[in-house]
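Board notes (copied after class):
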Amino acid sequence: MQEEMGSQAIDLLVKGCDVVTLDANGTVITDGAIAVEKDRIVWMGPAADCGSFTPKSTIDGRGRIAIPGLIDAHFHTGQQFLRGKLQAIARTRPLKLPVWKNYLIPFESCLEPEDVYLSGLVAYTNMIQVGTTCFAEAGGPHPDEMGRAATDVGIRGFVSLSTMDQSENIGPDVPANMLMTHEQAVERNVSLVKRWQDNDRVKAWLSLRQIIVCSPGLIKDISTAARDLDVKIHTHLCEGSYEIDYAFEKFGKRPTEWLDEMGVLSYHLHCAHSVLLSPNEVDLYQKHRLSACHCGFGNYSIGHPRLVEMWRRGIAIGLGTDGPGAAGTLDIFQVAHVARVGQQAANSAVFHQREPISAEELLKVATIGGARALGIIDKVGTLEVGKKADFLLCDSSRMDHQPIYDALFVAANLVVGRDVETVIVDGNVVMKNREMQTVDTAAIKAKLFERLPAISERFERMVA
């Protein structure tokens, strides 16, 4: 991890913090320092040994814990403005089920390009403020506007387009602007990926919303494009019982088994939720190196998520919020804490395990797991020399963190998003002392208050 150090000019030096690297050796450097040049970590070690560096800027990390940036491996940018909206509707009348068909897709259909850009500004700023430095967009409207917002905020991310080419399996009420022909779906996905392929920090993926709304032909062609472009496909898989029933009725197999029969399973497929998996489907995930995302705030209402088993078997699985329309919060620390309790409830009663997965392991799922799932473990996920400088400084001086015997314990068990004080992404300080350095948050809030009534009015007319 450490390199022999001589006199060296660098861009940034963070010193005095406890450095939780999450590397293979579990290295924690007490009173440590991190040297950053351009977008990379070039040295780490004891703060006492960093005197030969000449930094352009220095951050005093005393009373802080440095950890890798968290990764949100499944997020809906286009649903950011639904935070609390469905709950408000439910207080006046029963919600129509399923929610994804009756509310989530209609809401996304209401959004104009500038609405999605604003949604991205709000969402990605929120992410930075709670310690998320990278996200994977689930697929929504106007993904180029998401990319523009991510670029402006300074976050790392993968944007994608909501892709559906059939609606007969869910009824006639799908908004027309959320559907496309087979040819349009392939062309729009491929061209999106190519438009963003030269951007180092913000890129695009392909997308298939889910098997119910995507034809077999489209699934095959998008899978072929993923291999040709060497890029991932973001999809929802085994998220609900309706999906299992659909696959059995139409194809005589469970969803993952049917996709295997079509020959489209590969490491290119990133599968959100992945809750209702049979033992054979978990085997297929492992065999074909599918990646997955556990959304702790929603998955336990669906079934028995196989997070512990998948993590133990080396399946690339990260944590996700699913967006504020589902979880309310974008705080991956909280998702990890909820997932720990959920996995205890799901596993302990069956196997009599006191602690099926620890908080420390779940912090690794939120960082290393997310990086593996997104295919960027060579760049982020741990703090190591040569990797991207994506990391957080978390305030550990408060009374609810005291006493501190072990910085890793505090980071995994006690820290939440609002303890994140400073965030570095790609070597750039995007938040310092809780103040965004890249965007004007007051202006974003003012624009939100201006635009939200019109968006809400359009949505309410659709779902009344």
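Comment from the instructor: The CA atoms of residues 93 and 464 lie 10 Å apart. The radius of gyration is 22 Å.
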